[in-house]
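ok, trying the design again with the full structure, not the truncated one.
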């Protein structure tokens, strides 16, 4: 069960990170120069936050 939830979370984080980058580029009016690096930072931050939250939830149950 945990594997399924963690996998779905990873998919959600990927799609949400992509949405954030697209909104940043849309607001800026141009593509980001280091798009891959910015995506990596956003993705890594969201993954660390959500997986830590999920870990604490699953350890409490």
């Amino acid at each position: 069960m945990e594997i399924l939830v963690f996998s779905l979370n990873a998919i959600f984080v990927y799609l949400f990170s992509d949405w954030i980058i697209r909104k940043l580029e849309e607001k800026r009016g141009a593509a980001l120069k280091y798009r891959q690096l910015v995506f990596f930072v956003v993705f890594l931050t969201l993954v660390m936050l959500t997986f830590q939250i999920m870990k604490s939830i699953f350890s409490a149950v």
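Keeping the full-length input from now on. Residues 2-60 form one domain.
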